[in-house]
Amino acid sequence: MNLPPDDDDHTVIAPVPAFPNALAAGTMLGEFEITRVIGQGGFGIVYLAHDRSLGRDVALKEYMPAAFAGRSGETQVTILSAHYAETFNVGLSSFVKEAQLLASFDHPCLLKVYRFWEANGTGYMAMPYYQAPTLKQMLKDEHALLSSEAWLKTFLGHILDALHVLHEKQCFHRDIAPDNILMLDREIPLLLDFGAARRVIGDMTQALTVILKPGYAPIEQYGEMGDMTQGPWTDLYALASVIYFIIAGKVPQAALSRLAADKLVPLAESAKGRYSPSFLEAIDRALAVRPEQRPQSVADFRALLQLEDAPVTRLHRPSTVAVAPAASLAGNEVEEWATPARSPGSDDAQAPPEIDGTGAAAERRKLAMLGTGAAVAVAALVALLLWPHKAPPRRVSALIPPPARPAAASVAPPCPLHRADGTPLCPVMVKIPAGTYRMGSQPGDRDAAPEEFGGQPKAIAAFEMSATEVTAEQWQLCVDDGMCAAPTVASPLPTMPVTQVSWNAVQDYIAWLSKKTGKTYRLPTEAEWEYAARAGTTTIFPWGDRIGDYNAHCGQCGTLGEYPQTAPVGSFKAYGGLYDMLGNVYEWVADCWTPHHGDSGADSASCQNKVQKGGAFDSMGADVRPVARTFGDRTKGDPRVGFRLSK
């Protein structure tokens, strides 16, 4: 039985209970009269508005990044602090660029911008107002129809036709997913959520960053991947993931997890007999982990799918279709956009308890668990604007025509470390933006331990951190080179985090990797680790205030039945683009242990005990909080302790 799919990408489109910065009903913005709020997200507000000059309703989007802007008077948008001025202005510039880009397209499957302008210290877009379900919503009621091969091919024809228009201008969507596709008249797909402003701001602030949907985002979107560049094949992977979701009833395995251990069952096997072999094989090809193994263009994918000429997409417009002239805007160039597409295989790609001053309380906490075993009418712009506040700090290039290719000297060299099949084994690094952070627990945290207090706000410079813990197979390459000692007990799987390596041994690995790759790696500081693990949130955990199930791998996370010990890296959802920061294994950091954040600590070269963070597979919930900390002897390994890299 082909059941409706269970989408676990955790993207939620929901009404917001209050709109403190929203314009009042009746406010006039040029010819547009605000009627009501449709929705509000971390980067803006969408209103239902009435165009008095043309007598039609529109969706009007206002740039309003809630974390660093507010309302002054009835309409003026003001920056909360001079500290946020650059970030606000870059986001506004990107907002305008996105509007200009959308206004340049005229395709029934691409969102249309009627008009855009700047006023009141911010920017606005006027767009068609649609009432239609998303594909994700339609699947709940009409899955049998939508999962037929005939319907899927028609759907693919429409989307591929729209992508061809984008790709001809060297533009890429980069966020195709079932909740980003509106179904006009429950028949014609409309691509939503280009989100250029949030992508650019995501490079500049920890609090507001773009989310990559695991299962839909291909490996080249996860950060520094050597010669794995983004291009048409990036959108084709996401589109194939949507088809996989419809057919298989679940989101595909996340690409980063597949890179470590590909457990994705091809549709040619799992859906055999329900669809034509050529159709299933085409979808499987587009879902290849490595970009050069996928179809390289819309034309290539259409040929594999054996689609006839692109379908004639019936033009769907609101009842009033006259378009107001777009304002001419200048002086809003953003410094960096997407690089031009090129073949991924080419050479140039690329109240605290009693104080225990000895720290014994932290060690007891660490050891405590050892050995335990219906479619809803929506406006198009709601999906476009309701960006999550708790999203990973990922760098995703904005959807803007790219400039000339930068000089070759700025292109990262290919990874020199590989598996036998050519899969690169260099660490995938995630860019963490600069910010200010105060380490440790807040007063009132019922799980707070003495060693978590005393932190003071400090500036954190921008840095990079590996998306996963270093794996056993990555460590083995150093062993094979004679530069690292083998762990006393081998990991059951090569994609599990390496453990039983001392802090001192980790320094040998880092020295070897830095020389091998020509890049300077190191362990993160405790402050960097904790700042990154919080992923820009203020909750106890990056996913909320409760431990919950399957948010991480720990003794109280509901995961021990499936993984009695460590799990392969990337088995659980990423937060801030980083996998397994909490749970799975404790992680060494650079700092010497002190029983209180207010202590200065010993010199790193001479201290015996080093800080460990994150908790392990059998840890209690309190010990996998980002602020929790413990320590270990720098000369000794532990089966519950691994590490990840920074630079």
TrEMBL record:
Residues 32-307 form the Protein kinase domain. The keyword Chloroplast does not apply. Gene3D superfamilies: paralog of FGE (formylglycine-generating enzyme) (3.90.1580.10), Transferase(Phosphotransferase) domain 1 (1.10.510.10). One of its GO terms (molecular function) is formylglycine-generating oxidase activity. InterPro entries: CTDL_fold (IPR016187), Kinase-like_dom_sf (IPR011009), Prot_kinase_dom (IPR000719), Protein_kinase_ATP_BS (IPR017441), Sulfatase_Mod_Factor_Kinase (IPR051043), SUMF_dom (IPR005532), SUMF_sf (IPR042095), Tyr_kinase_AS (IPR008266). Residues 333-356 are annotated as: Disordered. The keyword Zinc does not apply. It comes from the Bacteria. SUPFAM superfamilies: C-type lectin-like, Protein kinase-like (PK-like). Keywords: ATP-binding, Nucleotide-binding. ATP binds at K61. This is Protein kinase domain-containing protein. It comes from Massilia horti.
